[in-house]
Amino acid sequence: MAALPTITEIRKMSTEDIKSEVASIRRQAAEVRMGVELSKEKDTSKMKNLRRYMARLLTVLQQKSTQAPVETPKKSLSTKTKASKIPAQS
Questions:
Q1: Domains of the chain as residue ranges with CATH
Q2: Which residues, in sequence order, are CB contacts of 18 under 8 Å at separation 6+?
Q3: In the structure, what pLDDT confidence band is assigned to residue 4 with cuts at 50, 70 and 90?
Q4: 71 neighbors 78 (Cβ within 8 angstroms)
Q5: Which of 1, 18, 77, 89 is most buried, judged by most C-beta within 10 A?
Q6: CA–CA distance, 54 with 48 (Å, rounded to integer)
Q7: pLDDT (tens digit per residue) in 31-84
Q8: 3-state secondary structure of 79
Q9: Hey, is 89 helix, strand or coil?
Q10: 21/15 Cα distance (integer angstroms)
Q11: How far apart are alpha carbons 58 and 21 in whole angstroms?
Q12: What pTM was estimated for this model as a whole?
């Protein structure tokens, strides 16, 4: 199986592309599930990866339908650690 697209690549996709990808992944997941049940498929992690990918697709689709702003977490540039709030004993 080829590498699955990242979340940023999914966000760049159109709504119709995401819907068709979800349908394709559902068919693929059903085939893998059947293969696992019939002991034809040895790699059971494919099912987990397909489920996660489908969840990512559906999440982005939901975000696009509600027009929720997508914010990426910003990394802190400071490396300072916070001082302990416990007072020093005398």
A1: 7-65 (1.10.287)
A2: 10, 57, 60, 61, 64
A3: confident
A4: no
A5: 18
A6: 10
A7: 999 999 898 888 889 999 999 999 999 999 999 988 755 666 677 666 665 666
A8: coil
A9: coil
A10: 10
A11: 10
A12: 0.68
